[in-house]
Amino acid sequence: MLVDASEGPLAQTKFVLGKALARGLCPIVVLNKVDRPAASPERCALTESALLDLFLSLGASDAQLEFPVLYASAK
């Protein structure tokens, strides 16, 4: 699942994640655009925290909560 590091999870993130979790998938999170000034380490940590909250609110299983996070700059 691709998430903009500076914007965090948006409405479409919730929709797509909900579908993936309902199918029993264990998503891999990719924080993109980490090279931009708005994607400071603190902002990336906040985005990861928001994603964890989203996983929890959508009823993710314990296995699904162990999602890996990759950092990327798709240039």
From TrEMBL:
GO terms for molecular function: GTP binding; GTPase activity; translation elongation factor activity. Residues 1-75 form the Tr-type G domain. Keywords: Elongation factor, Protein biosynthesis. Pfam families: GTP_EFTU. It comes from the Eukaryota. InterPro entries: P-loop_NTPase, T_Tr_GTP-bd_dom. This is Elongation factor-like protein.
